[in-house]
Amino acid sequence: MLNINRIKIWFIVILGMLALGSCKKFLDVPLTTELETNYFIDENRVQRGVGSIYASISNIYGANLGSQISQNGVTIHPLWLLQGDDLTTSGSGSNTEYEAFSGFSPSDARVAALWQKFYFLIARANFILDKLDDPEVSKVFKTPGLKDNNKGEALFLRAWINYKLWDMFRKAPLQSERINSIEESVIKPSKGFELLDAAIADLEEAALLLPESWEGMNKGRVFKNSANGLLVKCYVLRACYASAYGGNQAQDYAKAISAFEKISGISAIEGVPYGDNFDYRTENNIESLFEYQASHGTISDNPWLDNDIGSPVGSFGAMYHYFDSHWGNYGSGGGSIGPTAKLRAMFDPLDPRVNETFKLAQNVDNVGGKLWWLGTEWSYFDGYQFVKYINGERGDRYDVDFQIMSSNNPRILRLADVKLLAAEAYLKTGDPVNALKQVNDVRKRARLSTPNGVESAVPADYSSVEMQQIMDERLLELAGEENTRWSDLRRWHAAGYINLGSWTAADFSYPYNPNLFTFDVKKHLLFPIPSTEMTKNPLLMADGNNPGYN
User: Fold this and answer.
1) Among 113, 215, 291, 314, which is least packed by CB within 10 angstroms?
2) pLDDT classification of 296: cutoffs 50, 70, 90
3) Is 405:316 a contact under the CB 8 Å cutoff?
4) Which residues have CB under 8 Å from 117's CB, separation 6+?
C-alpha cells in the first residue's frame, strides 16, 4: 500500500512551503523549515509532495473529533451517508437531522468542514501541478515517465474532488491554478457543467499520463484504470443531468462506454470474493480502482487532531465506529448508523452478500472479545448491524491507544460500481446484450462469494435486464458505500427514471415520526453552500446560495 506513515512527517514541510512561499520576504527571522525553492532537490522529494495530496484524503475519512466541528457526534460521515434509503440512524444525536433533511443549512458546521477539506486537497494538487511545470523541478527526474505519472495523479485527485463538488453542491469556485495571493482566492462560482467538465478534462488527460499499474510499495496509487473508471462515473452522471443543463445524454452515455472499454484486464471482479472489498488483508486488490490508503501510527493516532502536524500523532486512519456503539462515536449520543428495513427486505436471504452487509448484532464476530464493542445484542435497526468494514478479522485493524482509527482502507471506487454504470449506459444506447452481461457478471461474483467457495443458487442470472433491475442491483451491491445511493437517486430523478418528488418518508425507509421528515425535492437535492465561504467570497455571496437555502 502507499506508505502514508513515511509521508506524514513531511506534511508540515509542505504546508511550510505553501505559507512561506508567499510571505517569506516579510520575515526577518531564521528559517526553521525548507522553502519550496530548495525542497524539490531530487525525485524522492517530488514523490513525497505527490504523496501529500493522497494523504490529505485522511481529512475526509478520519474521525475528525476535534473542536472544529461543534456538534455532537462530530464525524462528518453522516453528512453523506444518511440521505437515501439504504442507511438509517439509531434515532439519537444530531445525526438524525441529516436523515430527516432538517439539519441542512448554510451554517451547518459539517457542511463547512467538508467543503474546506475538499479545497484543501485541491490546493495541494494545484501546488504539485505548479511545481511539475517548473523546469528546475523537471531536471530532478531520473525515472522515465515518472513526471507524467505524477501529473496524472494530481489531475486525477483534483478531478475526483471537482466531481464530488459538482454532485453535492453543483456550483463552487473552479480552482484550476495555484493561488498565490488573496486577490486570486476570490473566484466566481461555477455554472452548469463547468465543475464536472473540468473533472472530465482532467481525467481524460490523466488517463494518458498514468501508468498501467504500480508495483511494490507504490501499490495503491491511481493508475490508468482508475482514471477511466472515474470517467465512466462522470459521464454517466452528466448524461443523467443532460436535460437540466443542456447536455447530450446519448453522447455522454456513449463516452462512458468508450471509457469503460478502455479499462484493461488487470482489473477484474472475477476471483475477488465480495467481502474482499472491505478487508484490510485484501486491500488494493484487482477490483479496486481507487481507495484511501488508511494508516495509523505505531505509537499513537490522535483522532482529535488534524493530520498536518507531523510525527506519530494526528489522524491518518479511517473512521467506522458510527456503525457500532464504541465510545469513539460518543455512544448512542452521537447516533449509530445501520441498515434500513428497506435494504434488508431487498436482499434474498440466500444472497451471499447479505452476511457481508448486515448481521444480527450478537452474531457479529468480535475476534474472541478483542473487539469488545461488537458481538452483543442491541436495540437498534431491529437488532441488525451494518458490517461491511467491521466484522471479525477484517475489522481488527485499530490504533493501539484509542482503538478509534482503522487502517482498513475505505474503497472509494471499485470495478463492480463501474460495470453497473456501464450497464446503464449500454441499456440507454440500445445495447441490452452488453448491459445484461455487466449485471450478470456482478450477480455471478455474488454467487461465488460464499464462505466455502461453493457457488450459491442466488442471485440467479437474469435472462434480460431493464433499468429497474440495474437500479436494484446497485442498491444490493453498493449499499452503504461512499455516498453512492443518494447520488444515484438524485441523478435518476434528474433523468426522469424515478420521481423523488413523490417519495414519502416510507419510501426513504425513514423509521421515525413522518412529521419530522422534511425532505423538499426543490431544496434538498443539493447541499447548501457554507455561509462561511459566502462571507469570504463576495462573488459567491452575489450569486446566492443553492435553491431553498437563501
Assistant:
1) 215
2) confident
3) yes
4) 56, 59, 60, 76
Distance CA 479, CA 464 (A): 23
CB within 8 Å of 341: residues ≥ 6 apart: 382, 509, 511
Which residues on neighbouring strands pair with residue 359, listed in sequence order?
Answer: 385
- Give the whole-angstrom CA distance, residue 508 versus residue 405: 30
Long-range contacts of 344-350 (CB under 8 A, 24+ apart): 344/382, 344/384, 346/472, 346/475, 346/476, 347/476, 348/458, 348/459, 350/456, 350/457, 350/458
Flag the least confident range among 132-136, 299-303, 323-327, 423-427.
299-303
Q: pLDDT band for 454, please (50, 70, 90 cuts).
A: very high
Q: What is the pLDDT of residue 380?
A: 93
Q: List, in sequence order, every residue forming a beta bridge with 411; answer none if it has no partner.
A: 291
| Spatial CA neighbour of 543 closest among 106, 166, 184, 191 | 191
Q: Which three cell numbers stand for residue 102?
A: 432538517
With a CB cutoff of 8 Å and minimum separation 6, the contacts of 172 are 115, 165, 166, 189, 190, 195, 529
106/114 Cα distance (integer angstroms): 12
DSSP string, 249-282: HHHHHHHHHHHHTT--TT--STT--GGGGG-GGG
pLDDT at 21 over 60: no
